[in-house]
Specification:
globular, 84 residues
């Protein structure tokens, strides 16, 4: 797996049809600061992806549109099942 193709939201760009057809360079190369909340947040914290954050899943990615490709029901389950 090419780490450069791991999207900051957790999606692997290398399996995306748009990427494979040459329509996108992947999260890291295709986007700039301000294009994606999740990418910006993860880059500011120097993490590999959103799921590596100790606050994952945070309220922002659970309520902000287009901040993650992860299933909303799974995010709710994850948040409810985390033991603090």
């Amino acid at each position: 797996m090419d780490q450069k193709l791991l999207g900051k939201c957790g999606f692997y760009c290398g399996c995306c049809p748009t990427y494979r057809k040459g329509g996108c360079k992947g999260c890291v190369d295709a986007h700039q600061t301000g294009d994606c909340y999740t990418r910006d947040c993860v880059m500011e914290q120097a993490l590999a992806c959103c799921g590596a954050c100790e606050r994952f899943p945070c309220d922002t990615i659970m309520t902000r549109p287009h901040s993650t490709v992860l299933d909303p029901a799974w995010l709710r389950w994850k948040k409810e099942s985390d033991v603090n």
